[in-house]
Amino acid sequence: MEIALMDVPFLSLKDVNARYAEELKAAAARVIDSGWYVLGEELAAFEREFANYCGVRHAVGVGNGLDALSLILRGYKELGAIEEGDEVIVPGNTFIASFLAITENRLVPVPVEPDPATFNMDPAGVEAAIGPRTRAIMAVHLYGQLADMPALAALARRHNLLLIEDAAQAHGAASAGNKAGAFGEAAAFSFFPTKNLGALGDGGAVVTRNDVLAERIAALRNYGSAVKYHHLFQGLNSRLDEIQAAMLRVKLKYLDEDIARRRQVAQRYRDGIRHPHIQLPAVAREEQHAWHLFVVRCSRRDALQQHLQAHGIQSQVHYPVPPHKQPAYAGLQDAHLPLTERLHDEVLSLPIGPTLSDDAVDRVIAACQAFECPP
Ligand SMILES: *Cc1c(COP(=O)(O)O)cnc(C)c1O
User: Fold this and answer.
1) Residue 140's closest CA among 354, 305, 340, 356?
2) Which residues line ligand 1 (CB under 6 A)?
3) What CDD domains would the database entry show (predicted)?
4) Mean pLDDT score of the chain, rounded to an integer?
5) What does DSSP assign to residue 288?
6) If we measure between CA atoms, which residue out of 311, 194, 336 comes closest to residue 262?
7) What's the Cα-to-Cα distance from 161 to each of 88, 91, 128, 255, 364, rounded to whole Å?
8) What is the pLDDT of residues 211-236, one digit of tens each?
């Protein structure tokens, strides 16, 4: 008799957090017993530890990744570096949050096409998109792989632009000892539970070397106030809770180990999947990829996804519709981004995570190899 195999989950958050359950519970108990739940010692400690991990001077914990991105732009507006109506160059193929942060600040997103191999921002395309109102480049380290930061930094210097990183998918990706978050003027991280460093709820952080920007964002996230009931700016309420900061302090200790395991999984896929119709992800340099997602490309993506599902393997699409084709951005529908649009029809994310077993990876590989691509 055949033994029914368990499905291979795309990512089991339960398994991810079960590894540290005792430490997480102890940290939660510490916060519960402290009687202090917002803007306290856990957050201050996490901010120090995360800034140190990224190799920058400041980390400011906020409510989520979108707010982190948005607060960077808001901070620059308040400091006079950007004005309403200015343009920010952004990858056409990114999560909608990158666009929302721009438009929320009444700035104009200028989407550009990706490099066809890495799916990350193509510096030549960025340069061609620079105009008189361009003030910033928002680089996204898509799927966990660093964008070409040396080339983008050179462009930003030459044209006097701000370079901002959307590092929501790239905690721990590194190049020549520099980590994601340390390349631009400022970077945004998300600690959404599925990210490489995930809280047990929402969370985010801005990291920056810029003292003035860090101070402004720290005030903006807390009603525009540095001293209670004295409001210097029209801020908002977007803080990283003590409980989440305590969870993240536990998980940050294991982030590098988790990324090492993600790399092993990715390597196993890259060695094992040899299929004429499944294109493996291109890797610029190994250490530059934190493998948040393992994304293959297939002209019959939907058929491949159904085939994997029939073999009990979950997969996801990041993302099915690009921001400029979303109803929310009706004004951008005319943008001409053929490669971006094609990628959204062809990309498929295979299961990856720090708790995925070698057996599960082998089952995914075998199922991919057995895919009979329809004409
Ligand atoms: C997850 C993500 C965000 C937003 O983070 P949230 O914490 O969910 O608000 C922004 N940009 C990218 C590229 C992301 O993947």
Assistant:
1) 340
2) 64-66, 94-95, 97-98, 140, 166, 168-169, 190, 192, 202, 204
3) AHBA_syn
4) 96
5) G
6) 194
7) 9, 16, 14, 32, 43
8) 999 999 999 999 999 888 899 999 99
